[in-house]
Design goal:
- It is a single chain.
- By secondary structure, the chain is of the alpha/beta class.
- It has a single domain (about 5-235), classed as NAD(P)-binding Rossmann-like Domain (Rossmann fold, 3-Layer(aba) Sandwich).
- Helices cover about 35% and strands about 15% of the residues.
- It contains eleven helices and eight strands.
- It has helices at about 15-25, 40-50, 55-65, 80-85, 95-100, 105, 115-120, 135-140, 160-175, 210-220, 225-235; strands at about 5-10, 30-35, 50-55, 65-70, 90, 125-130, 150-155, 175-180.
- An eight-stranded mixed beta sheet has the order 3-2-1-4-5-6-7-8, sandwiched between helices.
- Strand 4 (about 65-70), helix 4 and strand 5 form a beta-alpha-beta unit.
- Helix 1 (about 15-25) packs parallel to helix 8 (about 135-140).
- The longest helix is centred in the C-terminal third of the chain and has 14 residues, at about 160-175.
- The model has no long low-confidence stretch (mean pLDDT about 95).
- The structure holds NADP nicotinamide-adenine-dinucleotide phosphate.
- NADP nicotinamide-adenine-dinucleotide phosphate binds near residues 11, 14 and 135.
- Keywords: Oxidoreductase, Plasmid.
- It comes from Streptomyces clavuligerus.
- Pfam families: F420_oxidored.
């Protein structure tokens, strides 16, 4: 298994920027990109320090050892599949029909969203991870290996080698991992499912509307969720 030394981030917003922060703090080199071009990432790169630089999406795909795709799901089809061929790509996206447009195969439940991403990035090794935690909680809950309050993040992939690479990356970023199985097994991390966002915050107050839930999550403190807690929740999740 190759250890990640240079992490590529495609999509450098809330979640991509947070992964970049954890990676740079952990001593990885980080290459960031977005849709508007590297010149728009100057402030973020300065903030991240000397291990970070910005590049085009294609250069990021070509130069990094491992790539995190932290873009809206609707942008997956615009990513350079050729430059990403043969690479391990962490799919940190979520499907929200109101944001991404309706995708029939996902609405019917025929495909998980990560299997959909794998179809679009056919020649890449897609690993589902980093999509199920609110970005502020991801930043707050990172802990060194062995810390008693270290949290775990779920991981799913069809390629075992790529999965191991990403489990090692999560460890470097400050997290244990819980193996969900293949991309087809990744439903429990999708929006509205047992492992999406809620494990890492206090119980959601009852009776909130959809918008109030979003507002509540934005101010909610982070709560550690160790591997045994994630496995417990997984056992209660619908298949
Ligand atoms: N926010 C969270 O807490 C969170 C947590 C887990 C997973 N997620 C998922 O992660 C994804 C990103 O969410 P976010 O909240 O980080 O969104 P965001 O803050 O809006 O950032 C999206 C990023 O994607 C880039 N992007 C959009 N289209 C692109 C394209 N065609 N090529 C390259 N880059 C492109 C944007 O670049 P420009 O600004 O230049 O357009 C921006 O840097 C979503 O699928 C979301 O569901 C979010």
């Amino acid at each position: 298994m190759t250890m990640t030394r240079t992490l590529g981030i495609i999509g450098s917003g809330m979640i991509g920027g947070t992964v970049a922060r954890l990676a740079a703090d952990a001593g990885l080199d980080v290459v960031l990109s977005n849709s508007r071009g590297p010149q728009t990432l100057t402030d973020l790169v300065t903030d991240l320090g000397p291990r970070a630089r910005a590049a085009s999406v294609t250069e990021t795909a070509r130069t990094a050892d491992l790539i995190v795709a932290a873009v809206p799901l609707s942008a997956i089809g615009q990513l350079p599949a050729d430059a990403l061929a043969g690479r391990t790509v962490v799919d940190a996206t979520n499907y929200y029909a109101q944001r991404d447009g309706r995708i029939a195969a996902l609405d019917t439940g025929d495909l998980t969203s990560s299997a959909y991403v794998q179809q679009r990035l056919e020649a890449s090794r897609v690993v589902k991870a980093l999509n199920n935690v609110f970005f502020r909680h991801l930043l707050d809950l990172a802990r060194p290996a062995g810390a008693p309050d270290r949290s775990a993040l779920p991981v799913a992939a069809d390629d075992p080698g790529a999965k191991s690479e990403v489990i090692a990356l999560l460890d470097t970023l400050g997290y244990d991992a819980v193996d969900l199985g293949t991309l087809a097994d990744s439903r429990p991390v999708q929006p509205g499912s047992a492992l999406q966002a809620l494990p890492y915050m206090p119980p959601l107050p009852e009776g909130l509307g959809e918008q109030e839930i979003q507002q509540w999550i934005f101010q909610a403190p982070a709560v550690p969720a160790p591997a045994h807690r994630i496995r417990e929740l997984l056992a209660t999740a619908a298949p």
